Amino acid sequence: MTIDILPLSGAIGAEIRGVDLSQPVAAELQRDLLNAWHKYVLILFRNQNLTDDALLNSSSWIGPLGARSRPAERRQEKDPYIMLVSNIRKNGEPIGSLPDGEMWFHHDMAFVDVPHKATFLYSVEVPDHGGNTKFANMYAAYDLLPERLKKALAGKRVMQIFDYKETSQPRLSDLDKVKHAWHPAIVRHPDTGRKALYVNRLMTVTIEGMPHDEARAIIEEVIPFAEDPSIIYEHKWRPGDFLVWDNRCSTHARTDFPETERRLLKRGMIEGAPLMPA
Q1: How far apart are CA 159 and CA 271, in angstroms?
Q2: Which of 36, 88, 173, 232 is the most exposed place for a label (fewest CB within 10 A)?
């Protein structure tokens, strides 16, 4: 099978043409897709028509599915693998998770000890305005850091924290109420060998072994490099878009959108391994 690979931007991402993810992916094509994914970090397939079963099989070439971390009794969706990202409401309650508004840049699942290595999103309904997803290349973010900040983060661990009810950062005083984990501030990708920044605005709260004020000052200095416009691609969704990205070397954010406009995407994840310090 011949596929076309078209870069989405100079920063991150490529569109793959000529692949129907509702059909089994042949071994040779799996290798091509994996190589493209490692090169571009994020890959897009447009005009897909996927049942839930096909969706769950769509990224098997990356690895086995990762189960959801949020307990079933604390979410509307009961499927152990598919999360609905939607502002659609039934009887006044969202049918899914993370329903409304803007969401800051973050690494998915950074708040657990073994984060999932990949996330995939499939769009079903999209608003006419906003609700875009921005992706930032954390290889490039690391390269942008001045040597002073690289040295400040070298060998350090950062705490990542997240509250499912929030789209901004929880307080450090709420640790007993929310999930959190320590991870290397700089990670080495196990497949490419490249260094990537593992600091983000939404979840990174402090640096191990430092006074909190000093740690916060360093994090605040790092964030502009992690969100530099030169390393970002903003994706405007169309129905049938399927995106899969590498959480070890990218972050993403959501732009605001009118609460009156329906938005429904289906999300799944791929099992990961402990992050490697650089």
Answers
A1: 21
A2: 173
Cα separation, 175 vs 186, whole angstroms: 23
Do residues 6 and 15 touch, judged by C-beta distance below 8 A? yes
Q: Is 133 left (phi over 0), alpha (psi -120 to 50) or beta?
A: beta
- Domains identified in the chain, total number: 1
In a domain, 276, yes or no: no
Q: How many CB atoms lie within 10 A of CB 270?
A: 20
The closest alpha carbon to 199, from 241, 161, 163, 229, belongs to: 161
Q: Is residue 141 part of a domain?
A: yes
- Read off the pLDDT of each residue in 63-91 and give the average, rounded to a whole number: 80
Give tens-digit pLDDT for 183-240: 999 999 999 999 999 999 999 999 999 999 999 999 999 999 999 999 999 999 999 9
